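Notes continue from the previous slide.

Worked example: a multi-chain complex. Inputs as given:
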Amino acid sequence: MIAALIIVFREVFEAGLIVGIVLAVTRTVPHRNAWIAGGVLAGVLAACVVAAFAGALSNLFAGMGQEVFNAAILILAVVMLTWHNVWMARHGKELAGELWAAGKAVVEGSKSLLALAIVVGVAVLREGSEVVLFLYGVLAGGSDSGWSVALGGLAGLVLGALVCMLTYFGLVKIPTRALFTTTTILIALLAAGMAAQAAAFLEKANWLTALDNVVWDSAWLLSDSSLLGKALHTLIGYTDQPTAMQLAVYLAILAVTFVLMRLYGAPAKTATPAPAE
Amino acid sequence: MSFSPLLSKLTLCAAIALVSATGTAQAQSATEIQLSYKDKKFDPAEISAPANAPIVIKLKNLDSKAMEFESKTLKVEKVVAGSSDATINVRAQKPGRYEFFDEYNEKVARGALVVK
């Protein structure tokens, strides 16, 4: 039972962190619960589908289907996160003010919510399909330990939800003004980390072979499979043996986010109640 | 975010390095290793490969359940469906002993890759 708990918790931990951040980012947006719940649900359903077709997926791209699929959905999440940051640079002021009720702003807002719901869905999908395969394997085995394992799995899920809540309540303690800056930086780092992970998957698939030298090995200091290492891996993309390519991709995403926020972000205006653009 | 201009410069340098490095990818031939998995056991339980060359592990999962081949030190994590094959690419390694296991049966299903 404990083994099942640990396996499931390890998988849902990352999704828990990401959902917690997204909940904190969108806390002032109306209807956000429905969108995020939709993202989680879609992620769970997609995880079941991916688990059911795990064999077929693996066989795509000369046996590298899993790696390519993981890279693709990570890239999707990176695009959504970056787009959200750029969008917030333009509309964050309206959101913080009371102009938010304006009809058009709500429509615009649901675009941003859709982007974040996709991010949540991707996070749940990536970790969820492994949980589904594991639990299915145990339950299909029909051994006496089936129920105890299912119980352990459930406990793991509850712990994952706890991580999500802790992340959320930790973040919303930050005052609103600072919260915006904090979440902008958090999301930029999250996106950069995911992009580097996508690069790592493409390296494993041999689709990306340039700059594959390992730049440093800090496993002696902090292994990325320890709990803290894993948390930092999810949050800021920490990895103990990054390749030059992963570093380059990481920095490129940060730079692109910064440049796009500068280009498309509205110049800071005083909060005069002007009609929504 | 005053650190960002510096960051953009760094990224530019990285991008230039990236472009100039394309095409100089490693050309050493990979070592191919056959490995099978049955009744929660790897066969052989210990495999070996030469150092400083990429390694390709061809894994046959003979059990009907899915397993997840994982190695923390080799940075590999791959789901292998029941009764199916998988190819696992491992980058060139320094000499040493690298443990791997089935994540779904971490206690019993273990093996190691010895790089010499």
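Summary box: Confidence is low (pLDDT under 50) at residues 269-274 of chain A. Chain A has one domain: 2-264.
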